[in-house]
Amino acid sequence: MSDFLIVGGGVVGMMTALQLADAGYGVTLLERQQCGNEASWAGGGIVSPLYPWRYSPPISRLSRWSEGVYPELSLRLLEETGIDPEYRQKGLLYLRVDDEARALAWAREAGKPLERVDSDFLYGKEPHACPDCKSALWMPTLGSIRNPRLVKALRARLASMTRVTLKEHMPVTRLIADGPRVVGVDTPAGKVVGDQVIVCGGAWVDGLLNTVEMSLPVRPVKGQMILFKGPPGLVNRVVLMDGRYVIPRGDGRVLAGSTLEDKGFDKSIDDEARESLWESATRIIPRLADCVVEHQWAGLRPGSPEGVPFIGAVSGFSNLHVNAGHYRNGLVLAPASTHLLVDLLLDREPIIDPAPYRLA
Predict the structure, then answer these.
(1) pLDDT digit string (tens) for 68-97?
(2) Which intervals hold domain FAD dependent oxidoreductase (predicted)?
(3) Is the separation of the CB atoms in 118 and 134 below 8 Å?
């Protein structure tokens, strides 16, 4: 029996497993598909909330702590696995921000280098950006990561660790409770047990908790994205405008996202979303209209009230814990939210106050 049994192999589940294994504990990680193939794979990889000044303090605290982790984590995973997560710190440009004063006030209070720049600066950084912008907001410290490569690297690292047992294509059908303890989980291959059970099930977390007569206000929110095959250098950094964004990759490809759709667990893609994403992307970078759209996909975000994740113990159980409900910011908040939970599990001094994330 492992010290810890983790249900859910997205970026939150894998980072939790990595930290527990680093601390010397045995971990079994169960994933219904292949690790990292749901929302963690489907997102854009921006290592910040899209408009950080519009978020509540609990999200900002997790975000600030997490941002500084990715450069080090990316280098670690490259060294240990040979897989480069392609962390890029090229800054971010915000176009047509209608609450600019609020953004700048937030930056002063948070100590963030956000500034208003003129058109010469904007087009010096992104010559192909939306024409006729007289100014923009510029955040030079913001980075992005190629999230499919990040989850691939995390999976490879965990697979190489003797303290970690990965069980993929192993859906959990229910948690098994015996009084105040969860003694294991049911799977099509039989019962799997662990001393402490951690549910990192993303959009599926409420269904899992329902099997022990608990509930969590987490629901799936679909997001569709498209991928352009562009020439290298067409877009050099993340650019946001009117709530939509483009994200460059090192090979010239450009992601454009994303939709917000309340359609349950439906992951289908449609022409209406494709057209909407194409139109917003080509407004941000007009020359993308000359590029082929290679791919369209959808992911299911774990929506929660105000986007604040639930992190900590489940009331009524002595060994059941949750880390879920990150909404649009799973990748952004994962380093901090997993570190906070591991602090609580191992009775360490928590990195931030855990109170705002406790399960009611």
Answers:
(1) 899 999 999 999 999 999 999 999 999 999
(2) 3-344
(3) yes
Rounded Cα–Cα distance for residues 115 and 136 (Å): 8
Q: Determine the Cα angle at 45 with ends 40 and 51, to 5°.
A: 115
For the chain, how are helix, strand and coil distributed in percent, rounded to 5?
Answer: 35, 25, 40
56 falls within a domain: yes
- Phi first, then psi: what are they for 265, rounded to 5°? -95, 20
Count Cβ atoms below 10 Å from residue 60 Cβ, excluding itself. 17
Give bridge partners of residue 198 from the DSSP assignment.
6, 321
Q: Is the pLDDT of residue 346 over 90?
A: yes
CATH code of the domain covering residue 319: 3.50.50.60
Strand runs (DSSP E) across 179-303, as ranges? 181-187, 190-192, 194-199, 219-229, 238-241, 244-248, 254-257, 292-303
| Residue 349 counted as domain residue | yes
State the amino acid at position 292 in one-letter form: V
Please state the domain count of the chain.
1
Tokens read off for 3? 């010290």
Contacts of 281 (CB under 8 A, 6+ apart): 226, 228, 244, 246, 254, 256, 288
The verdict on residue 66 lying in a domain is: yes
- Looking at the domain assignment, is residue 259 inside a domain? no
**Where are any strands of DSSP class E within 38-156?**
92-95, 115-118, 135-139
Taking CA atoms, 133 is separated from 50, 72, 91, 120, 122, in Å, by: 20, 35, 18, 10, 8
Q: Is the pLDDT of residue 269 over 80?
A: yes
Which helix (H) or strand (E) element contains residue 6? strand 2-7
Percent of the chain surpassing pLDDT 90: 93
Domain that holds residue 209: 1-91+143-218+304-359
The predicted-structure confidence for 159-201, as pLDDT tens digits, reads as follows: 999 999 999 999 999 999 999 999 999 999 999 999 999 999 9
d(C-alpha 280, C-alpha 255), whole Å = 12
Residue 323 contacts residue 198 (beta carbons within 8 Å) = yes
- How large is the average pLDDT for residues 236-250? 94
